[in-house]
Automatic annotation (TrEMBL):
Pathway: Amino-acid degradation; L-proline degradation into L-glutamate; L-glutamate from L-proline: step 1/2. Keywords: FAD, Flavoprotein, Nucleotide-binding, Oxidoreductase, Proline metabolism. It is an enzyme of class 1 (oxidoreductase). This is proline dehydrogenase. InterPro entries: FAD-linked_oxidoreductase-like, PRODH_bac_arc, Proline_DH_dom, Proline_oxidase. Residues 46-285 form the Proline dehydrogenase domain. It catalyses: L-proline + a quinone = (S)-1-pyrroline-5-carboxylate + a quinol + H(+). It comes from Nitrososphaera viennensis EN76. One of its GO terms (biological process) is L-proline catabolic process to L-glutamate. It comes from the Archaea. GO terms for molecular function: nucleotide binding; proline dehydrogenase activity. Its EC number is 1.5.5.2. Its cofactor is FAD.
């Protein structure tokens, strides 16, 4: 009952936002390094000590104006420098709408080019996250544009989208690099597969295409069956990526087998939308939240 109420509250946003945010942060701390870049660097160094590289994400999305976008760009530029100064093995990953895609396409393209140039200077990789389906086309176009001068870049592709087979082929043909994820947004059936089985089947299909391509790619899932499948493909052109706070034992097992693993580590004050996605994708997390509500 509590679980259903919590789910409804998350869905409708009809809750007292301050109280709910406070309670949510207790749970969110599991997946988020903290508010500051310093905390993110600490978590990244910890991931490095556990044999993984780190992918840092300054939380933020749907930036509504150029001021917000400018702040995000500056944060990433200084974060990349800080990673270098503190000897972090890793890179950053950023969202298109954080860099201005909801404001203006050209601004977003220019901002990605600026970050890619900085990443190149520092010898770091740059990942582009994928957001909801209305941004897919523009995100891929921007990625392929940035890729022309910056081969050390990659983009996330969501296996739940029906279009992703064609997108993966297109990106492979251009020599691009894909991070394969299942997908974390709510999409209508016209765009996305409706069942988990269909999404998993598509994930397997795309996994094989990427393994055969020879291009570097990332297997970004915590799904043990798909991870096994990827391991069994014996592709030497991929790395495994998982989110902070999820399936740490699986990360350690892969590291122990000598496979490359990266941990995605988000930080910043805009932790709510990210955490809501994490809570929604697993019933047990709703229980965790419900318990936190009961204990308050
Ligand atoms: P699935 O949801 O089937 O989970 C498999 C198993 O993993 C579960 O049984 C459970 O054990 C564990 N698990 C998964 N989620 C959990 C959670 N929240 N809490 C606790 N355990 C959990 N999405 C997107 O749309 N755009 C993007 O750019 C990215 N980027 C990205 C980067 C990286 C490195 C990862 C790992 C994931 C993303 N995602 C993403 C998120 C992705 O689309 C997806 O929502 C989550 O990874 C959950 O799906 P799984 O593939 O883990 O499978």
């Amino acid at each position: 009952m509590m679980c259903t109420m919590t789910a409804q509250a998350l869905h409708s946003h009809s809750y007292d936002s301050t109280l709910m945010e406070r309670l949510l942060f207790r749970v969110a701390k599991k997946w988020v390094a903290g508010y500051s870049a310093g905390e993110a660097i600490g978590a990244a160094l910890d991931a490095n000590r556990r044999g993984m590289s780190a992918i840092l994400n300054f939380l933020g999305e749907d930036a509504a104006d150029r001021t917000q976008v400018g702040l995000a760009v500056r944060e990433y530029l200084s974060l990349m420098e800080l990673m270098r100064a503190r000897g972090v093995r890793g890179c950053v990953s950023t969202k298109p709408t954080q860099l201005g895609l909801a404001v203006d396409y050209d601004t977003c393209l220019q901002n990605f080019s600026v970050l890619a140039k900085k990443a190149k200077e520092l010898g770091q990789f740059l990942w582009i996250d994928m957001e909801s389906a209305r941004f897919t086309e523009d995100t891929i176009t921007i990625y392929l544009e940035v890729l022309k001068d910056h081969p050390m870049t990659g983009v996330a592709i969501q296996a739940y989208l029906r279009r992703s087979g064609a997108d993966v082929l297109h990106i492979i043909e251009h020599g691009g690099k894909v991070r394969l994820v299942k997908g974390a947004y709510h999409e209508p059936e016209e765009h996305a597969f409706a069942t988990g089985e269909e999404v998993d089947r598509n994930y397997s299909r795309l996994l094989k295409m990427l393994a055969e391509s020879g291009n570097f790619f990332a297997v970004a899932t915590h799904d043990g069956r798909l991870v096994d499948e990827a391991v069994n493909l014996r592709a030497n052109n991929c790395e495994f990526q998982m989110l902070m706070g999820i399936r740490d034992e699986l990360k350690s097992q892969l590291v122990a087998r000598g496979l490359p693993v990266a941990e995605y580590i988000p930080y910043g004050s805009q932790w709510l939308p990210y955490s809501v996605r994490r809570i929604r994708e697993r019933k047990r997390n709703l229980l965790l939240l419900a318990r936190s509500l009961v204990q308050s």
